[in-house]
């Protein structure tokens, strides 16, 4: 018997696997300063905007804190009158022009519009980079003038005070806002063209995510209204610098003309601020309810309706400014019309919650907070659109509270919802689930405590922009300041856990929320050109009920009870096997 | 600790109309808002992940519901609009018989002028005024139950004349006139605020409206009692004319509060009883003041020399009335003297009148 001894040839131990090189993505594609400052990648430009507006949000927030602190005492607790006037002007200018207007359009719009419509970049990448430089130039000039020189006119810049009496650096401030307006126009134009021309195959208009619709409406306003404010601001600078009579009656001008021109921009501008928030909320509420959006066309068209009607009601800021009786009637009527699409949106969002499967991660808490606060802000707007009540409430704290409910309760909440929703996609990291929920709750509570007393003060007639006020308003002002300190704390918490998440956060999967949009079809953080393939869209944006994304592929297990442990614990593009398992995976 | 009432004071017909509309909107919006909150809360509890299988129905919307929640809010909003127009119509159109008061805003004071000539500063920042302006800060006096039209303008930048108790507000613009009108229904004192930001002292551009009874108001218009609470008599009033005369005739040379006075100080004298030289006393009323000017030596106050000359032929009857009203209105500490920063009226003699040498030396 021959035995053949087969000696297995000594096999070399398999070479230890090479450590996988980090997936190339937009963040590790160059680390030098110039790779950021000269980038034309829409995602990097979005991050540049994010960093810059965060700085302005903090500066504006500090100014707000100073204003509220000063109001602790009926005669001004910490500041002289002139300093107070400069503080509230700094707050208004920084928050409106350099935080709210660029917040979602320039950060989230830049980052996500191409990704959500399946494009590689915006239509004009270099224009996009230019817009950031223009923004920074204007913002630097304006910030320098509100912080160093000081402007005491209020953000509304009403002449003849702003052109004659005010002894502050109005001209550089106005020029700064003028310059940054161009960045707004560039971004608007860019997004508009991108949405028109660069949608991927299958991404028809009625399959556009509602966020895209809202940015489309926003961009339209940015493009059409901003030139008017540019003209207006330039006229202010001309009158102030060279004494050319445009608005000052003692030079032969007309002060009411300024108000018409200013509000022709600045009223639509509040829709620039709120519409993108509405878009973000539509994304978040559908995702965390696991439901198709209720009334897709109603929400999309109400965005467009707001954008168009929003141009026709500027003079409702001027009911007591001496405009004609019949003009007041007309503008009051038109203001009622714009309330309708806003109401439609609210009803549709609540309709989306119905029969959903709702989880309450931070983005959802912020989005629900948006709806709750926006309802108050929207309904109190009706008092101001109604002539008979506006003649008392005009220019009081009622207006201040209404405006903050819409702009902070609405837009800042919307911005935070968007930031928390897309943070894992932007950075590739998850933030602390618990802390983010705590922060959202604190912000909502602090917000109510800050601004509800202001409604009562306004109803009792306390005027805005008053560092000195009668003693009967003292208690409510103290309550409001107490609320503001809670609110301030609420805003500080995210800055901590979001920063920490960059270094210690868990790595996020491509689709941590199990959302349907195209932006979740690329790794987190996305690759340089967003998609390795050209996405083909086969269905509408919110097919959560069927459980497919826009490309018709199954969704991963969503986070929350019954699913995986944390939002980052899932992988896979093939659909969940657990309780969220869906029968149908592809629709035509 | 001062607390606000539930509903702010309502002191005009407009205020009442405002409140009905305000509470109509509040109740409608409150019910609607709370209903939406309740529905959201219901959904958030009932359809939370833990209570569901995770499967959701594919509901895309409902045309019928969309129409419902478009049409119903539209109708409600238009009801706000219509009612608001009615209230605004009331506020914007003063009745033809309304009395007129002119108000001028400037940085940083409000000045009012009545058709009868009285002019008064009705509010502002005292730190920003000269002494005579400070002494003229008073209240805007209005009669109850009588319509008043306020015509406003501004000397410099845009201001806003807001009176919360009347629920009224209107901008004061440079270079044009705006109007507001009130029908006060209640006497009392009410805030005036500048509601349009106007610079450093914007928050001190506040004043007071005093609504008084019609009788009192008419009395005041005709130069009667001083109701405005200013230190000095109101410009344009009889008492103000009297003050000018008081300075012109140099009454204050002797009737001064200084220690070297040669005659009794007249501050706060009206209505008191003064002891007379040689026994007895006299209540200081209009008749006594008149007599003391025309026949100064008839009833001399105890402790003073009868050195005052008669002014019988030096003042006219109208001037006498003015002087009497001034002395009547003279408050403690407001007797003008030569060191005050008041210009001497035109034509005033620069030397004090020599008291005639009394033949009968007491």
Note the topology.
The complex is a heterodimer of chains A (588) and B (362).
Chain A lengths: L32 H5 L4 H29 L10 H36 L8 H25 L11 H5 L4 H28 L12 H33 L12 H35 L6 H14 L15 H29 L8 H24 L1 H7 L3 H31 L5 H27 L14 H31 L84
Helix pairs in contact in A: 2-3, 2-4, 2-15, 3-4, 3-6, 3-7, 3-8, 3-13, 4-6, 6-7, 7-8, 7-9, 8-10, 8-11, 8-13, 9-10, 10-11, 11-13, 11-14, 13-14, 14-15
Chain B lengths: L12 H34 L16 H30 L6 E8 L2 E5 L5 E6 L6 H4 L5 E4 L4 E7 L4 E5 L4 E5 L5 E5 L5 E7 L12 E6 L1 H8 L16 H11 L24 E3 L5 E3 L2 H9 L22 H13 L33
Parallel strand pairs in B: 1-5, 4-10
Antiparallel strand pairs in B: 1-2, 2-3, 5-8, 6-7, 6-9, 9-10, 11-12
Helix pairs in contact in B: 1-2, 5-7, 6-7
Summarize the structure in words.
The complex is a heterodimer of chains A (588) and B (362). Chain A has 588 residues and is mostly helical. In chain A, 61% of the residues lie in helices and 0% in strands. Chain A contains 15 helices and no strands. Chain A has helices spanning 33-37, 42-70, 81-116, 125-149, 161-165, 170-197, 210-242, 255-289, 296-309, 325-353, 362-385, 387-393, 397-427, 433-459, 474-504. Chain A is globular, with a radius of gyration of 26 Å. The termini of chain A are far apart. Residues 563-574 and 584-588 of chain A have low confidence and may be disordered. Chain B has seven helices and twelve strands. In chain B, helix 1 packs antiparallel against helix 2, helix 5 packs across helix 7 (317-329) and helix 6 crosses helix 7. Chain B is elongated. Classes of the chains: A mainly alpha (588), B alpha+beta (362). Chains A and B meet through helix 3, helix 5, helix 8, helix 9 and helix 10 of A and helix 1, helix 2, strand 7 and strand 9 of B.
């Amino acid at each position: 018997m021959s035995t053949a001894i087969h000696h297995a040839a000594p096999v070399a131990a398999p070479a230890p696997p090479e450590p996988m090189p980090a997936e190339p993505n937009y963040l590790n594609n160059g680390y030098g300063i110039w790779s950021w400052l000269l980038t034309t990648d829409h995602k990097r430009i979005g991050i540049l905007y994010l960093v810059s507006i965060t700085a302005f949000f903090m500066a504006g927030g500090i100014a707000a804190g100073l204003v509220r602190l000063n109001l602790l005492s009926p005669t001004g607790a910490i500041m002289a009158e002139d300093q107070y006037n400069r503080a509230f002007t700094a707050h208004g200018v920084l928050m409106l022009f350099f935080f709210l207007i660029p917040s979602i359009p320039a950060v989230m719009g830049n980052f996500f519009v191409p990704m959500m419509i399946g494009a590689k970049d915006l239509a004009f990448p270099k224009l996009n980079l230019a817009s950031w430089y223009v923004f920074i130039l204007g913002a630097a000039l304006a910030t320098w003038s509100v912080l160093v020189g000081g402007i005491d006119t209020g953000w509304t810049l009403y002449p003849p005070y702003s052109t004659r009496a005010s002894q502050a650096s109005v001209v550089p401030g106005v020029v700064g806002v003028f310059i940054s307006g161009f960045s707004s126009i560039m971004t608007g134009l860019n997004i508009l063209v991108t949405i028109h021309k660069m949608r991927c195959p299958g991404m028809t208009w009625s399959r556009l995510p509602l966020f895209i619709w809202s940015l489309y409406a926003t961009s339209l306003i940015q493009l059409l209204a901003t030139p008017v404010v540019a003209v207006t601001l330039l006229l202010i600078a001309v009158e102030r610098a060279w004494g050319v009579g445009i608005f000052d009656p003692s030079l032969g001008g007309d002060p009411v003309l300024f108000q018409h021109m200013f509000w022709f921009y600045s009223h639509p501008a509040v829709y620039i601020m709120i519409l993108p928030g509405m878009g973000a909320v539509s994304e978040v509420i559908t995702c965390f309810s696991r439901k198709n959006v209720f009334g897709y066309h109603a929400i999309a068209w109400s965005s467009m309706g707001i954008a168009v009607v929003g141009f026709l009601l500027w003079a409702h800021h001027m009911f007591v400014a001496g405009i004609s009786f019949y003009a007041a009637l007309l503008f009051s009527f038109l203001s009622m019309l714009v309330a309708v699409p806003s109401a439609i949106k609210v009803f549709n969002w609540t309709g989306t919650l119905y029969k959903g499967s709702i989880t309450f991660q931070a983005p959802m808490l912020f989005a629900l907070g948006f709806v709750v606060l926006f309802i108050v802000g929207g309904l109190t707007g009706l008092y101001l659109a109604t002539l008979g009540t506006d003649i008392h409430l005009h220019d009081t704290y009622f207006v201040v509270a209404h405006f903050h409910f819409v702009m902070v309760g609405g837009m800042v909440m919307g911005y935070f919802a968007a930031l928390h929703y897309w943070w894992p996609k932007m950075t590739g990291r998850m933030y602390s689930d618990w802390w983010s929920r705590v922060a959202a709750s604190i912000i909502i509570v602090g917000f109510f405590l800050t601004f509800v007393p202001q409604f009562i003060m306004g109803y009792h007639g306390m005027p805005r922009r008053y560092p000195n006020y009668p003693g009967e308003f003292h208690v409510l002002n103290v309550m409001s300041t107490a609320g503001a300190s809670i609110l301030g704390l609420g805003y500080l918490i995210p800055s901590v856990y979001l920063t920490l998440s960059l270094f210690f956060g868990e790595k996020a999967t491509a689709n941590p929320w199990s959302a349907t949009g195209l932006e979740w079809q690329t790794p987190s953080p996305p690759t340089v050109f967003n998609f390795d393939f050209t996405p083909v869209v086969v269905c509408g944006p919110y097919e959560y009920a069927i459980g497919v994304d826009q490309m018709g592929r199954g969704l991963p297990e969503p986070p929350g009870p019954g699913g995986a442990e944390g939002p980052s614990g899932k992988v896979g593009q093939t659909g969940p096997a657990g309780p969220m398992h869906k029968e149908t995976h592809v629709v035509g | 600790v001062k607390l606000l009432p539930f509903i702010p004071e309502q002191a005009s017909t407009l205020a009442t109309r405002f409140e009905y509309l305000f509470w109509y909107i509040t109740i409608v919006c409150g019910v609607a808002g709370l209903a939406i909150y309740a529905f959201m809360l219901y959904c958030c509890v009932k359809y939370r992940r833990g209570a569901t299988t995770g499967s959701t129905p594919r509901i895309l919307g409902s045309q019928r519901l969309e129409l419902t929640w478009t049409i119903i809010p539209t109708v409600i909003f238009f009801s706000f609009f219509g009612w608001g127009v009615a209230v605004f119509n009331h506020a914007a159109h003063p009745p033809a018989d309304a009395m007129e008061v002119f108000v001028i805003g400037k940085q940083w004071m409000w000045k009012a002028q009545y058709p009868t000539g009285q002019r008064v500063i009705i509010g502002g920042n005292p730190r920003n005024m000269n002494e005579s302006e400070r002494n003229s800060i008073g209240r805007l006096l209005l009669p109850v139950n009588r319509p008043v039209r306020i015509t406003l303008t501004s000397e410099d930048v845009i201001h806003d004349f807001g009176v919360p108790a009347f629920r009224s507000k209107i901008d004061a613009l440079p270079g044009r006139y705006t109007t507001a009108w009130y029908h006060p229904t209640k006497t009392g004192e009410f805030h005036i605020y500048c509601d349009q930001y106007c610079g450093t002292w914007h928050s001190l551009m506040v004043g007071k409206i005093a609504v008084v009874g019609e009788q009192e108001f008419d009395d005041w218009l005709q130069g009667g009692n001083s109701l405005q609470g200013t230190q000095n008599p109101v410009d344009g009033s009889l008492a103000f004319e009297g003050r000018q005369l008081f300075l012109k005739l140099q009454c204050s040379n002797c009737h001064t509060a200084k220690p070297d006075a040669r005659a009794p100080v007249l501050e706060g004298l009206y209505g008191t009883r003064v002891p007379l030289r040689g026994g007895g006393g006299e209540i200081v009323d209009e008749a006594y003041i008149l007599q003391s000017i025309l026949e100064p030596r008839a009833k001399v106050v105890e402790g003073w020399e009868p050195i005052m000359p008669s002014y019988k032929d030096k003042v006219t009857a109208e001037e006498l009335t003015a002087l009497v009203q001034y002395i009547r209105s003279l408050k403690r500490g407001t007797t003008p003297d030569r060191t005050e920063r008041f210009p001497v009226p035109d034509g005033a003699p620069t030397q004090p009148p020599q008291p005639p040498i009394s033949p009968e030396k007491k």
